[in-house]
Every structure is written in C-alpha cells, then in structure tokens.
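for the writeup, i need someone to sanity check this before i put it in the appendix. the sequnce is what the collaborator sent (i think, or maybe the updated version? ugh). structure was predicted straight from it, no edits. if anything looks off just tell me and ill rerun, i have time this weekend
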Amino acid sequence: MDYSPAFLKIRAIGLGLILFLSLLAVILFCIQIFVQWDTTVSSERYMIILMLLTHTVTAIMLPILILVSFRPWLDAIRFLFLLVIHISTDTTFTYWFPRYACPANATQRKQCRLFNIYILVLSWIVTAHLIIYVIGLSVFVYRTRASADNLSGAEMIDEEARRDSTTHSMSESRLQSSTTTKGPPGGTPALVLKYDVSQRSPDFNPEHGGDIRGGVPTQVFEHPCYGLESVFPHSGPIVVFAAIKDIWTGCPSPLASSRPPRMPRPSTYGAKAPGPSGVRSSVSPTAISQGASRISSVHRSRPVIAV
C-alpha cells in the first residue's frame, strides 16, 4: 500500500524526536556511571547499566525504522518490544528511586539526586513518546484500512450496478427479440406475428399464411415471408389471419441460417375471386432484407386488429 508523503514525513519527525531523547538519556547515564560508580552499590550500578542498554537499543533501532520502508505490522512488533523494555526499566527505577544511595557529602548528594530526577523524567518522556507514536500509528492504520474498505465496497457496488444494468439490458434485448423471433416446433427459428382475429375472411390465402383486406391503395403490409402486400380499398379493417394464438410463419431467422440469402423469386399470384365483400388482393412479393425481418407499421385510416 502506498502512503502519503506527509504521513511519512510526520513519522520521520516523530522517530527523530524519540531518537534525540534516547541519545540524551544515554549521555546522562554515561555521566552518572562515570561520576558515581564508586559511591553506588552493585544493585544500583546494574539498574543504571540496564537503563543505559535500553536507551542504546532504542537509539540504534529508530534510525533503522526511519531508513527502511514503512510496514505497519513490522513497526507494531518493534515498538511493542521497545514499550515492554522501557516500561519495565522505568517502573523498576521509579520504585528504586527513593532508596537510591547517594554520597554523604551534601554537594555530591544534591548533584546525585538531581541527576536521578533528570534520568527518571527523561526516561518516562521517551516512554510517553513511544506510547503516543504507537497510538497515532494505530489510528492512522485503522482509518486507512477503513477508507480502503469503503472504497472497495463502493467499487463493488458500482461493479454490481454495472453488471445488473448489463443483465437488464440483455434481458430487455432478448425480450424484444423474442417478439419477432421464435423457434417453431421443429427447432428452426421463425418470425412470429401476434394477432387476435375475431373472424375468418373468405379472402384467406393459405400460401401467404394470412389474409389482407381493407384500407386504401397507398397502404402497404410487409409480410414476413412474402414481402410487401398492396391493400385494395375496403371499408373493413386490415386483418392478417392465422389463429387466435401466435402465428408461426415458418420464416427462418437470417442470423440462424448459415446459407447465403436467397435471391428474390419473381412470382405473381393470380387475382382471387372477390368474396362477399367484393375485395381483390393483388400480391407482389419481394425479398426480405437479411439484416432484420420486421413488420413495418401500416399507416391507415382504420386500426389494425393486433395484440
């Protein structure tokens, strides 16, 4: 994970401050050992040496943390170790402080007490800075991971929304295509017309799969298999008859057929005998475009009986 330069700069400043305080504590411990080595007992010498080693380890480890790349879990382990040793030594020295033996001379005794106070305060200051750094590091890592989780959650929601919209659009396209293309009982795709026919006209032509009557000479009906059908004038509506249910025209879908498109077949159907309504229908079939087999809308003065 990439971290901002501002955070890395603040981290380096904090570690540098702790390093400076640790070096200052090391200097004070060295002075105390050099000045009061003969006047102190062995237990007090061991305590001072232990605290000197603690701050020396801190002063060595912090520059390494500044130079290497930042890893939260490695920083947590290292600072947990530093906190354990610092809190242990500082607590022990605080407990031992009232009974710490100083020289009998008043001046030396005063200097010894003052040095011990400086060492105690400085040691706890270093420990407090370590605690503050660990708390700040924990808060930063928590907020960074929470922001990353929220961002990943938002990305997942956007991805699901895009997936749902794609699925919805595909469903709509399939639903729209299902109104024009279906598979007949034999398995071959075919165009389907949906008409609710209330009556059967004597002008029914079984070769066309339908029946046309009514309209004006300018109105045209595009049959899915046989092209454009001119409509002669009639007072009744335009009806394409096959059944009350969906009409299987038996026209294979252009996309489902791998054969080359058939050329227009010039054929003329003879004029039919007029029925009771006196209507004749002349047919001029044409080839249907391979790109799409669709039924063109009929501009008419009377509505088409259709569902």
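Strands lie at 181-182, 190-194, 220-223, 227-230, 246-248. The radius of gyration is 48 Å.
thx in advance!!
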